[in-house]
Amino acid sequence: MAGVSHGEMVEQFVVPLENGLIQRQMAESAEKENIKWTTTIIISSSLKSCEIATALENRSHKVRYSASVENGSIIFSRTGVAFLLMDAKECFMSAEEIFLAKIENFINIHQNSFLVLSAALHGLEEWKLMFRIQQRFLGSNLRILPVHNTVNAIDLMCTIAKITSKPYIDSICYRMITTKAYIIEQSPVWKTLQQINLSDSFNPN
What is the dihedral of CA 147, 152, 158, 163, to 10 degrees? Predict the structure, then answer.
């Protein structure tokens, strides 16, 4: 690297570890993880009387109902993650183009979108349904979550929304930085750079 000495290259790696910045940030994010996670959720008015909406309210989330969002949708507004709830039985009973059009409208609005497909048992027909949906929206931002019940659906949605929220993304980033720094520190290249830096410090030229 032009204009950069070996010593400066070493300092770029060692400074964050020496001043303890990463360690403090990791400690702070660990404390945040111990706090009960709550967020704001926008739920389609069509789900207001459903068990899933009540269950989310019982988890102390700030739930807001809206008639302007797609029927069956649940949106975690702070993270931008959106979920469309559909029952496999209802899909089988309706014309395919109807529910496919609904999914298409949903993913056109929400960049980070998931289809939560509910069925008591995901048998051959349910997997064929998911395959047809995947084929139709191949290359799009849609991901399918097969679930069996309300508890299963809520756990998956909240986990995805939680790990994509800023404090948890920061925590993951800090852990990656720390791991990277540890790998570099233990590598033979790092030791060679230390030796070169030590030699430079004794070299008057």
Answer: -80
Residue type, 193: L
Question: Could you tell me the two tokens for 41?
Answer: 């959720």
pTM: 0.65
Q: Which residue has the tokens 């183009």?
A: 97
pLDDT at 198: 55
For the stretch 61-110, pLDDT in tens is: 889 999 999 999 999 988 889 999 999 999 999 898 999 999 999 999 99
Distance CA 145, CA 118 (A): 8
Q: What is the largest CA-CA distance in the chain?
A: 83
HSE of 167, CA atoms in CB hemisphere, 13 A: 15
Task: Decide if 203 contacts 39 (C-beta within 8 A).
Answer: no
CA 29 to chain centre: 16
Please list, in sequence order, all residues whose beta carbon lies within 8 angstroms of the beta carbon of residue 11, skipping any fewer than 6 positions away.
none
With the C-alpha atoms ordered 65, 66, 72, 74, is the resulting torsion angle positive or negative? negative
Cα separation, 21 vs 43, in Å, equals 39
